[in-house]
Amino acid sequence: MVNAFKSAVKYFKSFPDIRKDRKNSIALLGNPGAGKTHLLIAVANNLLNNGISVHYFPYREGFDEIKDNLDALEEKAQRMKDVDVLLIDDLFKRGATDFEVKTMYSIVNYRYLNHKPIMVSSEFLVDDLLEVDEALGSRIVEMTKDYLVEIVGDRRQLNHRLAN
Question: Which domains does the chain have, with CATH numbers?
Answer without folding.
Answer: 2-14+22-153 (3.40.50.300)
